[in-house]
Amino acid sequence: MSHSLSEFGEYLNFFLIFSSLLGLLYAIGELFSYHRSRKQVLLGVIFLGASYILFNFYLLSSHRIKSFPYLYLTDLPVVAGLGILLDEYFLIALEGKFRSFRRLYFKLIPIVLFFVLILIWNLLHETDFMKNAESTTYSLEDRPVLLITITTLTYVWCMLKILTRISKQIRWSTFRKNTTLKIGLGITIFCLALSLNALRTIAFGDHAAYQFSGIAIGFFFCFLYVLRQSSPDFFLEVRKIVEEEKKERISQISKLDHNLVRKQLEDLFEKEKIYREEKLNLRDLSEKLDLTSHQLSEFLNTEIKLSFYQYTNLFRVNEAKEKIEKEPDRSLLAIAYDVGFGSKSTFNEAFKKETGKTPREYREKILKKHPIR
């Protein structure tokens, strides 16, 4: 039994150091990318921090921490720093916002201070630490509990901020039907779960908690590799969804029955031929539909993909074409007035935009095919 446990421990230690090196490889890939952006630099530093944390887990799990006693618990300030960097990364990935580097530095200064304080604590307690180095647990007296608690809660706070930001940006109904968002939410919840496990570590101080976190992060790195290979634009997709959600939230037509509005428009233009009214404008048309001008304009632009004037002129030009074909000898200006145009110039401009020809050129083409006898 002891042999099996020892063998398992060796496999575990190998996995932890392998995962640490994998994180380092990710960091190098991001930091030395040819087209390096601020987001990639942040991601590279995040991977570097995660790699250091895994290395610390490896030292604890293998008891090699005895050779590096000053590094004991130095992973915790790094965890807090990762929380701040992850918050910054998600802000860029989800909203495209960039905070100033100075603001980020001010947030990281206390983390660096905590790192130095833990190094000092390790220096002052090196003898006590070496006595307990073979133990699988450490009592609360053996650790700077206040420093550990502050750094861990900093990370928890950052994760909760990210979850709050996601919940504000994206509706639950969108989450339910989008796999990309489910994966993104799963990643965030995973990061939060790790912080809760860190709180458990504070309470009990056993190596199993460190080992569990190390295994989880290691598997997460493997999952991340597969995700990056299968969906290299993963966060770009999330960003697009967030932008669509923003538009939907401020949209003035989200609560309208789009099919009904479309049907009413078709009736007015195809049956009643409202476009023949020369002075027809957006306001008059919106009143007939019981909509505001803003609602109708947004509906035409987003659903029909045409502006009010493009949509109106489309019907006018189509009827003008029919009249030219049926009555090629009739005055073009008379036809223009019939279909709703107020002048020859606007008629010519709209007609050429729709057909690529002026009304005169179009009539000449018709006459060549069907000459008048």
From TrEMBL:
Q: SMART domains under this entry?
A: HTH_ARAC
Q: Which organism is it from?
A: Leptospira ilyithenensis
Gene3D superfamilies for the chain = Homeodomain-like
Per its UniProt record, what InterPro entries does this chain match? Answer: Homeodomain-like_sf, HTH_AraC, HTH_AraC-typ_CS, Tscrpt_reg_AraC-type_HTH
Which stretches make up the HTH araC/xylS-type domain?
Answer: 259-365
Task: Identify the Pfam families for this entry.
Answer: HTH_18
Q: Which UniProt keywords are given for this protein, alphabetically ordered? A: DNA-binding, Membrane, Transcription, Transcription regulation, Transmembrane, Transmembrane helix
Known SUPFAM superfamilies for this protein?
A: Homeodomain-like
| Domain of life from the UniProt record | Bacteria
Q: What is this protein called?
A: AraC family transcriptional regulator
Q: Name one GO molecular function term.
A: DNA-binding transcription factor activity
List membrane-spanning regions.
12-29, 41-59, 71-92, 104-124, 144-163, 183-202, 208-227
